[in-house]
Design goal:
10 helices; 5-stranded parallel sheet; alpha/beta; 3-stranded antiparallel sheet; about 40% helix; about 280 residues
């Protein structure tokens, strides 16, 4: 992925400063999100033609959309599901139903929550500081499919998180700023696989090209909630986003054990208009 993006973490006292620079700007005329995803996936399949593709299928909207797009482009792949105790049973149920509906046999990894968090804390967190588990779990899945099958992992990540309510959020410099318009954030979890395993996996589909991320932001309906907007863009029925694992006692202990290191490692791209300018004209 993402030779067009440069991202890095800087530790400043107890604050982790996550920065993202655009090295290749998006063509502002390319606003058809589905077309850009199709182009990205076809190039991805060509670049990794020597290795089987595996999709990290979480049960959420993003990875389901990538799965639908892989099928639409007739690109062979195997879904990989991870069951974390019983905490993500709802998401796994969605993922298993999607596989059954599409007549695709998935590979299921079952992990103990405490062992998972201890492994993350003992290994990956020494390389990358974050409390966003999604990216680190993708690294673990990628290591598994590469070691066992020489596989390359595709992920439904690379989009932005959008805060739609008027509230105070951390700016890039760690200061708190009040915002009225919806603000787009690019999370460290979307680049951690590329940082820790550079060039070995396709990684984040939605930011594979400048135009895939640009067209995603361009078509995002800021009048809707994040799940509603994604549902509309992906043409997938809306569902609640369940983060039961991150509400669990095991995760709370993991969170507190990290100490005073700031956990909100994201890059504030700004409002929709500013995020579009960031990707098409100049850094903000």
């Amino acid at each position: 992925m993402a030779s067009w993006l440069k991202s890095y973490q800087l530790l400043k006292g107890n604050h982790v400063d996550f920065q993202v620079e655009v090295l290749q700007y998006a063509d502002p005329t390319r606003t058809d999100f589905h077309r850009e995803i199709d182009l990205g996936l076809r190039q991805m399949a060509d670049e990794f033609a020597h290795r089987p593709l595996y999709l990290a299928l979480s049960g959420g909207l993003d990875s389901e959309y990538v799965g639908n797009s892989l099928i639409r482009n007739k690109i062979p792949f195997t879904p990989v599901l991870m069951r974390i105790g019983t905490y993500n049973d709802l998401e796994v149920c969605h993922a298993e139903y999607w596989c059954k509906r599409n007549n695709i046999k998935p590979y299921l990894i079952t992990v103990d929550p405490v062992k998972l968090l201890n492994k993350l804390k003992a290994t990956l967190l020494k390389e990358w500081i974050t409390c966003n588990l999604g990216g680190l779990i993708n690294v673990m899945i990628a290591d598994y499919v590469e070691t066992k099958y020489n596989g390359a992992l595709v992920a439904g990540s690379g989009d932005c998180t959008v805060h739609t309510s008027e509230a105070a959020w951390l700016s890039n410099d760690g200061t708190v700023a009040s915002v009225k318009d919806p603000v787009f954030y690019y999370w460290d979890a979307d680049v951690v696989l590329e940082h820790l395993r550079p060039g070995r996996h396709p990684c984040s589909t939605i930011s594979y090209f400048p135009e895939t991320l640009y067209s995603w932001i361009y078509n995002y309906d800021t009048n809707l909630t994040e799940q509603e907007s994604k549902s509309q863009l992906y043409d997938i029925p809306v569902r609640p986003k369940a983060d039961m694992f991150e509400l669990s006692p095991e995760y709370r202990k993991f969170f507190l054990d990290l100490g005073n290191i700031a956990r909100f490692t994201n890059f504030r791209a700004g409002t929709q208009q500013k995020a579009i300018k960031w990707l098409t004209e100049s850094n903000i």
